[in-house]
Amino acid sequence: MMVPAGTTIETERGIFRSPILGAARMFTVAVSRDFVAQHVLTAGSGGPEHVWHSHSYRIEVSLEGGALDESGYLVDITEIESRLDVLVSRYRDRTLNELPELAGLNPSLEHVARAACVALAAELDAPSLRALTVKLWESPSAWASYRLERPESTDLKG
Length: 158
Hints:
Elements: E1 2-3, E2 8-11, E3 14-17, E4 23-24, E5 27-39, E6 53-65, H1 77-91, H2 109-121, E7 129-139, E8 142-149
Antiparallel strand pairs: 1-4, 2-3, 5-6, 6-7, 7-8
């Protein structure tokens, strides 16, 4: 549903206005997990990242959509958790360079975030799902994300 510019929404915390002409109302639901994995960067300028090492990763998947189902969910959190748990079990305690989806790629945060996003998009769907984003941290201060958006007439699986 589109919200015209200047539309007023009143809440307990105050009054909000839609600042963007035609801005869509969106719900967002997100789930995160922690895991340890290893990698060796194969591109760049050298340094400690270019020897085999571990990171304590945090992965977050967030889904966006404009409408809820009859139960009041965009996507049931238990389904998101289940799909994310399967993905994390694939990465946990592994050397990321050895994963088929990263074959021939530098296993950077960006490439791993994209691979995870594509894998989850193949497993998660809902009629009003408009976007799926994976955010991946390798430390409390370093992260990358990858986002897939669905045009109105297609799905995230391509």
